[in-house]
Design goal:
single chain; alpha/beta; eleven-stranded mixed beta sheet; 14 helices
Amino acid sequence: MSDSTVVVYAVVAALVVIAIVVGVVVARWRSATRGRRGEENVASEDVPAKTVAEDGPTSPSTAPSVARSSDRAPEIIGSLKDEPSGIQPLPAPGTSGVAAASGTRTRESPESSSSRWTRLRARLSSTSNPIGRTLFSILTRDNLSAQDWEDVEDTLLMADVGAEATETLVEGLRSDARVTGTSDPGQVREALRARLLDVVGEGVDRRLNAVRPDATKPSVIIMVGVNGTGKTTTAGKLARLLVAEGKTVMMAAADTFRAAAADQLQTWGAKVGVPVVRSEKDGADPASVAFDAADKALAQGSDVLIVDTAGRLQNKSNLMDELGKIRRVIEKRVPVAEVLLVLDATTGQNGLTQARVFAEAIGVTGVVLTKLDGSAKGGIVVSVQNELHVPVKLVGLGEGPDDLAVFDPAGFVDGLLS
């Protein structure tokens, strides 16, 4: 036998030995893994199917369909004033991978609605919104010319006030002796303020239906809008506003298409002790989550149920039809009191296109304008109301948790003119 043959046999033998050793190691590792999984399965049998955590994230599971094809309901995360016997606190961290029980986070005290506009009005007056200041500078000129009035019209149209409202406002100003008969700044400001209040709608009832004396319980508010308008954030801020008003609130994370939406809503709720009903599986049927949330809000006696829905493009008919389904499913348990359309104030006329389609699909009762402090197009307040014939009820004027307030026309106009 040659030397080369011996070497080949030695290499083959070594490879065989290595293969045997690797096989033994893998077999032992698999055996150990199966043992650990068995222990975890035994431990998990003690975890209740329905749970309530005071704060923090939860582990995923499966949400039922509207027809109740599964026995497991979407999980409630947060706090409830009265825990029913079928709902138990979650175990502590580390026991089964679920959220911590109560007492792990200090609840915040939201700012009262009465004090918000004082702070937010000052912020509005310091923004780049030029409507009031530009109009005032034109109208205080001596002997207003035709070109001056064209400048007034251009200013209003550029601010997205809309053609109809612009015509009404200009006609009113031209016939007002305080504007045409004098250049006194005080009288001009008074006249301009009065005319702006007329087109904004000072006497309109802007109360949320949830705070009316005859409100249903729970009063259901559905949040709708396109992607990127701050809809989920607005839902969380609205919960804070209602808690500040002394309402008991529950939220439903019916935006099941965006993985972070439910977690985001849960974080907002945890800060003020508001429970969140969410699906434990991404992509679950949003109508199912909304139905179960209505069921639980009714059972718990909550004052308000806020339903956050997925952002959707207004030209996607199948997604718009889904909003109608969510409303119909909720109304099998409790009437829907409010549908709030969240619009980005910086989008201008494009926001009106969105508003029309959403109004047709689900029926809008009020508008929330976000990012109003960063918009040079504050006239959207006027044009969206004229288009939908529903009031702007809430406005967002900042990134802070309490930078959402009930819209105050007088405060808005004063902020523009200051």
